[in-house]
Inverse folding.
């Protein structure tokens, strides 16, 4: 079945540091890949997505490239801010019969950015 | 454009009771999915509805059920609550086309005592 493996947290960085959160996946076919972010007490917000190999998703300074050869979708940001403190989830989208959609999530990585 | 709206945001129940959670999707979105989020199990898929039909179901006992109405609004019900049902229940909606991305509500936080 499908699975997503994320870098264990928590991750603590100083403001303006470089961020990498690793994500690898196992899936049949050609899934779409996503990063979601969850701030305390809130639901999940879509951060970025990529739908095919070598696609780069980007948003708010975050980037991730869909690497089919390494089955990876690592999240990066060149300079983090305190406001980036949140939990980050890597996910893949699979389609079953009748075009039913389901996201498979990684376990989440807690990021804390210190001023 | 209004986002996904879930009610209630917080609720407390006791073991053996039942609970109904409500979700209003983004206007124009006809697919609604439900996920359970717990510290131990993470995010787990419950079920997905499209045009009032359940298209997909996760690995949860029959105590967990849902339905979708003609206006795409959805409800999920948990009967005979157990302590382990304490969780954040997230509803998400999506368009029938696209990459499969979901748009989530803020969730309903259920505590079972």
């Amino acid at each position: 079945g499908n699975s997503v493996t994320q870098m264990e947290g928590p991750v603590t960085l100083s403001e303006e540091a470089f961020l990498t959160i690793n994500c690898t996946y196992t899936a049949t076919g050609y899934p779409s890949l996503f990063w979601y972010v969850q701030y305390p007490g809130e639901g999940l917000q879509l951060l970025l997505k990529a739908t095919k190999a070598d696609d780069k998703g980007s948003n708010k300074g975050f980037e991730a490239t869909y690497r089919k050869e390494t089955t990876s979708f690592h999240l990066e940001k060149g300079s983090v801010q305190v406001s980036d403190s949140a939990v980050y989830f890597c996910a893949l989208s699979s389609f079953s019969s009748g075009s039913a959609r389901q996201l498979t999530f990684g376990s989440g990585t807690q990021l804390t950015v210190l001023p | 454009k209004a986002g996904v709206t879930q009610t209630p945001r917080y609720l407390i129940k006791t073991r053996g009771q039942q609970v109904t959670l409500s979700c209003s999707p983004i206007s124009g979105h006809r697919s609604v999915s439900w996920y359970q989020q717990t510290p131990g199990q993470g995010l787990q898929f419950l079920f997905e509805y499209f045009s009032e039909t359940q298209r997909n179901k996760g690995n949860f006992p029959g105590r967990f059920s849902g339905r979708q109405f003609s206006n795409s609004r959805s409800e999920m019900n948990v009967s005979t609550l157990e302590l382990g049902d304490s969780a954040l229940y997230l509803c998400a909606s999506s368009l029938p086309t696209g990459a499969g991305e979901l748009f989530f509500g803020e969730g309903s936080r259920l505590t079972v005592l």
